[in-house]
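To the wet lab folks,

You asked to see what we're planning to order before we commit. Fair enough. Below is the target structure as tokens, and below that is the sequence we designed to fit it. If anything looks off to you, flag it before the synthesis order goes out.
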């Protein structure tokens, strides 16, 4: 819905966050096996963080004078991340799949931060830098988990 480059990149990020929000819930519910407790609990922490981020990104879109996409149908159209099936899944598969999503988000965020800085929108850049820090830390933790 947003019509400036910065608004559009925030809106796409907002759509991807909704996919990730649904997907982390999906895995929180459907993870099975010996890593259940660890992965179940970690995913709850992550989707709670995503919920806060969703609100901050949507409000930033409004602050810069645009309107955020606000329906699941719009998010599905805009998002580049893919949802997961409602099916039993092991802890390692969960972490591998989410790590790949997070790496895609990190690549987008780096481009979006640069675009916001080029547009002179330091506040949006700052908001996205916080997100980048969070997902880089999460990617590091997921990578460490997969080594065991
Ligand atoms: Fe729960």
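Sequence we intend to order:
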């Amino acid at each position: 819905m947003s019509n400036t480059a910065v608004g559009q990149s925030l809106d796409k990020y907002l759509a991807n966050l909704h996919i990730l929000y649904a997907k982390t819930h999906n895995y929180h519910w459907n993870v099975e096996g010996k890593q259940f407790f660890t992965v179940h609990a970690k995913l709850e922490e992550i989707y709670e963080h995503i919920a806060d981020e969703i609100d901050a990104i949507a409000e930033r879109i409004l602050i810069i004078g645009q309107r955020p996409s606000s329906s699941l149908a719009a998010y599905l159209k805009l998002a580049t991340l893919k949802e997961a099936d409602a099916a039993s899944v092991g802890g390692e598969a969960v972490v591998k799949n989410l790590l790949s999503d997070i790496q895609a988000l990190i690549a987008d965020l780096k481009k979006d931060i640069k675009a916001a800085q080029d547009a002179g929108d330091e506040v949006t850049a700052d908001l996205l830098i916080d997100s980048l820090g969070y997902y880089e830390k999460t990617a590091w933790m997921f990578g460490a988990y997969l080594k065991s």
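Structural context that might help your review: The longest strand covers residues 31-32. The chain has one domain: 5-147.

Thanks,
Computational group
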